[in-house]
Amino acid sequence: MVDWLSLAVPLAYLGVLLGSLATFSSLYRKRKAKKKAPAVPETVLKAALLRRAIEDIKRVMALRNQKQALAMLLQRGSVGDDLWQRFQRAEKEMEDEVRDVVAEANAYVPNWGQTIFQSANEMLNNALFRERLQSYQNKLAEEREWWDKKKASIQEGFMKELDAESSAATKSEQATSTTTTTSSTPGTKTPESSAAPSTAAPSDDEAVLVEAADTAAGGSSSASKKKKKGKK
């Protein structure tokens, strides 16, 4: 005869254990569902798709640039057919990638696949322009430093020329002043010239005295002549 009382205890234990496991699993799933990451916004997905289109454009341009060189090498026999076949497979994979991007773009927005690569090309050109502008701005400090040095050297050369011209002008002025001072100063008298008798012309007073004497002599001679005429 089966002892149900002895079997009831382990059966109850198993029931409690299974019930606790079931409640734990349900609670765990609920908490996990609550902690699940939120859905990615559609704008982020569109931006990622544009990024993908930009990378596809870069790869397509690289393949086009390499195709001509590879065709020339294949004609010359420098490369084998296996490399050309791998290149063709890469082109087919790129075409499939472009179709996939167009399909995803149309899935997000109708008819967006027709303009997504145009938008991606504009974004790529804008990024290249910014990179070039940033490189020019990085070189701006070097160019400015070089120009400052060149300007300083030019100014220094001009100052040297001005100093040379001013020094030459001062030297010429000094030379002309020395020549004028030597020509204007009178000759110094030596002792021999001062001791020698003066041979200079008579002064004005002596000339007046001589003229007075001459007139007096002339007057006396005329008076004597008149007296002689009277006696006759």
Structural description of this entry:
- The longest helix is centred in the middle third of the chain and has 69 residues, at 116-184.
- The model is unreliable at 186-203 and 223-232 (pLDDT under 50).
- The chain is an all-alpha fold and 232 residues long.
- It starts with a helix and ends with a helix.
- The chain has helices spanning 4-34, 42-76, 81-108, 116-184, 191-195, 204-231.
- It has a domain at 12-165.
A few lines on this structure:
The longest helix is centred in the middle third of the chain and has 69 residues, at 116-184. 84% of the residues lie in helices and 0% in strands.
Overall 3D geometry? elongated
Radius of gyration: 63 Å
The helix/strand series, from N terminus to C terminus, equals HHHHHH
Structure class: mainly alpha
Task: Determine the number of helices (DSSP H or I, runs of at least 4 residues).
Answer: 6
User: Helicity level, as a percent range?
Assistant: over 70%
Low-pLDDT residue spans: 186-203, 223-232
Distance between the termini: 232 Å
Counting DSSP E segments of at least 2 residues, the number of strands comes to 0
**Largest beta-sheet details:** none
Average pLDDT over all residues: 77
| Quaternary status | single chain
As a percent range, the share of strand residues is under 5%
Task: List its salient traits.
232 residues, mainly alpha, 6 helices, 0% strand, elongated, disordered C terminus, membrane, transmembrane helix, Sec66
Give the helices and strands, then pairings.
Layout: H1 4-34, H2 42-76, H3 81-108, H4 116-184, H5 191-195, H6 204-231
Helix pairs in contact: 2-3, 2-4
